[in-house]
Amino acid sequence: MSEAGSGATLLEVRDLSVRFRTRDGVVQAVSNLSYTLRRGETLGIVGESGSGKSVSNLATMGLLNRSYTDITGEILFEGTDVLKLRQEQMRRIRGKDIAMIFQDPFASLHPMYRVGKQLAEAVLAHEDVSRDAAWNRAVELLEAVGIPNARARARDYPHQFSGGMRQRVMIAMALVHNPDVLIADEPTTALDVTVQAQILELIDRVKREFDCGVILITHDLGVVAETASHVLVMYAGRPMEYGPAQEIFTGAQHPYTWGLLESMPTVEKRLEILVPIEGSPPSLLHPPSGCPFHPRCKYRFEPCDGERPPLFRLPDGHLDACYLPPERKRELWTKRIGAELGVT
Amino acid sequence: MNGETLVEVQGLTKHFPVKQGVFARGKQVVHAVEDVSLTVRRGETLGIVGESGCGKSTTARLIVRLLEPTGGKVVFDGRDITHTSQRALRPVRQEMQMIFQDPYSSLNPRKSIGQIIAEPFKIHHTEKDARTRVRELLERVGLSPEHYNRYPHEFSGGQRQRIGVARALALQPKLIVCDEPVSALDVSVQAQILNLLKGLQREFHLTFVFISHDLSVIRQVSDRIAVMYLGRVVELADSELLYEHPRHPYTAALLSAVPKPETNGGGYGRRRIILGGDLPSPVDPPQACIFHTRCPRMKPGHCDVDAPQLRKFDGDHVAACHYPVEKWPISEDELRRRPGVETGVD
Ligand SMILES: Nc1ncnc2c1ncn2[C@@H]1O[C@H](COP(=O)(O)OP(=O)(O)OP(=O)(O)O)[C@@H](O)[C@H]1O
Ligand SMILES: Nc1ncnc2c1ncn2[C@@H]1O[C@H](COP(=O)(O)OP(=O)(O)OP(=O)(O)O)[C@@H](O)[C@H]1O
Ligand SMILES: [Mg+2]
Ligand SMILES: [Mg+2]
Fold this sequence. Notes:
The structure holds 2 protein chains of 2 kinds. Chain A is of the alpha/beta class. Chain A has helices spanning about 55-60, 85-95, 105-110, 115-125, 130-145, 150-155, 165-175, 195-210, 220-225, 245-250, 255-265, 325-340; strands at about 10-20, 25-40, 40-45, 70-75, 80, 100, 180-185, 215, 230-235, 240-245, 310-315, 320. Chain A is globular, with a radius of gyration of 21 Å. Chain A starts with 8 loop residues before the first strand and ends with a helix. Chain B has a domain at about 115-170. The radius of gyration of chain B is 22 Å and the shape is globular. By secondary structure, chain B is α/β, with parallel strands linked by helices. Classes of the chains: A alpha/beta, B alpha/beta. At the A-B interface, helix 7, helix 8, helix 9, helix 10 and helix 11 of A face helix 5, helix 6, helix 7, helix 8 and helix 9 of B.
């Protein structure tokens, strides 16, 4: 992808597939997924509910139960395949080198312990320091994520914090060990726009100050546009389009990406009629043949339900899994989708 | 038809008691809705927008009298229903329906879709052949009549919301209050449901109160919009006027915070008005202007002393602010400057 100005490679996912063996059959949650994260980058992963965004990152975190989950492919963290690590080796990386922020901060904080204590415990989990030092570090972290009056607030319980403050605490928790990779799974979905703006700004600042790489999972293309340097669009567990944010937002290639962009209600004007993607995502127990999006695609033609489209590499380096000829795509984008968005 | 009032709400107020220890004395209340006045015109969509906890759902429940107000009054179709008993309300109930955010929890999992939609017919004894009517409704909301015997868990989120819409339409109501009807849905499906609601409104001349925290969604459906903050309406205007030129700094902050796909390129911070601090507690809302604790234009000695009244701008546009936004879009610097005041706070 874009080599110029990028930092060292932190994470390299190669041909990752995740299958769950369930009572109803095998769920193909993630199929043939590859991506790279470098220091200083924010990779935005977007897609509808059930597209495999969380599962692929849970695999990176070693949080999938292997007794009923089959994982193939490689997830290289600084060159080491984390899928081959033993439990206790993974535990040393998780939360320390690779940290994750979950969608619901309330569920992830213990209601009975003071916020500061929970942070201090997290410090003690990987570092051999005194309790006082751990507490001071907790206060510092709360300050770093913008909790006013941090020393006093560290003594509060989670319910005394607002939703936005709890999400800040979760970010502080993720930063305890200065991670290289920060995975944020829908970190603002439960928050209001003004609080979302605060949190996204915080994540961006943290990325720069802690010099890490960020994976931001969301279903909001607006959020991705404003924060990500690279974008991965997923559908039915598969990569549809992947590349630098700039390329994707000024020249999206895949009809699924177009569908997501077109269906977004805009704050700029009122439309008589919105442009939805008709239908709904397929069952991953019985994924469709060919391109998984073809049953809903306005532009499908004869090859789409046949062989699965590979990822085509475009001249600008971005990847696209769609058979439509490039000239046709260009025409559709400039005349319709891009024009509608006002980016061409 | 247009312009005629269907719902009129005056000085509507709802206080909830705060749960307290057995020995607690002072009576504390949540000021969920405070002195809200608005009208809903026949055939229009009135949007209500604001952040979590600002009183949108409570306002909705007061309008359809699922809650009894602490103060103020509600007039529906010329009838004062503020203190009408639940029993006497029954015929009015048919004319006001609600659609909720989470279609799953509002559908009985043990009943088939047909039974769920036919339910209101049975309660009100208005329809002999419920089955035919249900099939018609299913078709109208984009489901197949074959779905009649299926159960809620067999449907996707978007399909469940269609079921909720069909149920609300069953008794041909005059008013439908939609409380975050698309907030739990993916954008692609959100657009399907919004189109459905818009189409139904045209077809059946429905009046909507549409609640959302999403300014993009609310713009797509609303004719007029009320912006709420901490239980109060701080701005109310024709939709186009509101988006073209928001007057209240809170509305301005909300609008500037919406992430947009066309502003690509990463790098956060431009044009965005980041509000400081957190939402104050509705148990102890700020004195004077309720927004003054977070407002970039706050003038000490004025905004924290005098409560601004709703004041009129062009047309029906009203906003409650001593230092309304003069032009839009506005830069963060400009926003911090108040007319006639030399330097900003802090
Ligand atoms: N433990 C599991 N067993 C079986 N199926 C699972 C399991 N966990 C996830 N899945 C399935 O894997 C698919 C991908 O799920 P995933 O949670 O990654 O989606 P997502 O893109 O994160 O969606 P959302 O936006 O709703 O969070 C879904 O179809 C989901 O139902
Ligand atoms: N039954 C109740 N008892 C006590 N407090 C309540 C009750 N219902 C609502 N509240 C409080 O009243 C305030 C307004 O709540 P309301 O649900 O109307 O907000 P909202 O704008 O709909 O928020 P959201 O966007 O989160 O749905 C909140 O502070 C809420 O906690
Ligand atoms: Mg997820
Ligand atoms: Mg609500």
